Amino acid sequence: MQHFTRAAALLACLAAVAAPAAAQDAFPTKPVRLIVPQTPGGASDVLARIVSQQLTKKWGQPVVVENRAGAGGNVGMEAVIAAEPDGHTLLMSYVGTQAINGALYKNLSFDPGTGFAPVATLATLPFVAVGRPDAPFHTVPGLVKAAKAGRVTYGSAGNGSVNHLLGEMFNRAAGVKMVHVPYRGAAPALQDLLGGRIDVVFTSLPSVAGQIKSGSLRPIAVTSGQRARSFAGIPTIAEAGFKDFDVNPWFGLMAPKQTPAARVARINRDVNEILRQPEVAESFAAQGAQPYITTPAEFAGVLKNDVAKWGAVVRASGASVD
């Protein structure tokens, strides 16, 4: 009887220790907000909705996509910084917001490169140069020839956006000077492209996948070193003789800076399990994207390298918003 009492007491003690740990590991305990700092319909939004649906199934809690566009993504980032660092608010980040904005905006109250906890990369996704079907050029050599012969304009989502910097990178690689026309977002740039007011736009594949398939826009080339699986008919810029041209932006999830490492690791593990699912890979491929799996530490290393790389591009372009 004495042995039984001691055993019962020991089990009670173990249960008392385990209970707080179990409560601490419980996640999520309420709906999760996934803040997309861009407008609906772009690459960030499309990928966020694919992942949010899968996380909702996995976690048994709604993962709600919330678009907070403005100031090149800074409005959405500020909302995440102000949130409770418990994993229930996540940021849909990409190379533009995290690796470019720090060099572009001189008076930010936070550092996009170091002010968040990297959680998990989601995908890499090439951008594509598109023009109208009636344009006098349909290939990279044709675009280069037209730019050398006269005035060619390219639109972007604004000064210092990935769209803008890709155009400047192409100018330097090809030895041409296309004229930059900034807009307040990629959507109005594409509208003016369709309307014949500009000649080219470098944009994410998801934002023009429908127009490419319908034939209302004609793809010229993708910016990545390899062709996109579901858009294999579109050549790369590298294939046109610019062998070092390889820009394949990443997208990922970040959390408020003080989010506990154990919570970050838990979300990373669950996200990576989702990225390994064939149905997710197929959904990404339909957008031209490819799953990109990393640990939080690996993601932090990627971000550090890209802050340096894209910061140099911003400075070389002379782009500034402030």
From TrEMBL:
- Indicate the secretion signal residues: 1-23
SUPFAM superfamilies reported for this sequence: Periplasmic binding protein-like II (SSF53850)
The answer, when asked if Signal is one of the entry's keywords, is yes
Signal among keywords: yes
Provide this UniProt record's keywords sorted from A to Z: Signal
Cite the Pfam families for this sequence.
TctC
Record family assignment: Belongs to the UPF0065 (bug) family.
> What's the protein name?
Putattive exported protein
